[in-house]
Prior knowledge:
The chain has strands at residues 16-18, 39-41, 62-64, 76-81, 84-89. The chain is mainly beta. It has a single domain, classed as Ribonuclease Inhibitor (Leucine-rich repeat, LRR (right-handed beta-alpha superhelix)), CATH 3.80.10. Strands 1-2-3 form a three-stranded parallel β-sheet, with no helix packed on it. Strands 4-5 form a two-stranded antiparallel sheet. A hairpin with a 2-residue loop joins strand 4 and strand 5. The protein starts with 15 loop residues before the first strand and ends in a 5-residue tail after the last strand.
Amino acid sequence: xxxxPETIGYLRCLRALDVSNNIIHALPESLSLLRNLRVLDxxxxxxxxxxxxxxxxxxxxxxxxxxxxxxxxxxxxxxxIGRERCFLLGTLVG
Length: 94
């Protein structure tokens, strides 16, 4: 899979989304409409950036990115930890 459809935002009750092991380059902004999302697994993709609205998902507890290169955007802070990156969302960003 190379992309998620923009209509992914219609799945309002979705709590976990695993799109690992694909060749996804970008995530749709509509991902920020998934207010009940708690787990987002993005490991082993080729992401260039995360959606700006991702920081508004207050129930999001885990974003798994593994070893992937991601540019940080407004609303999402990055902390480099060796070869892995940890993403801090929303109000956790200092």
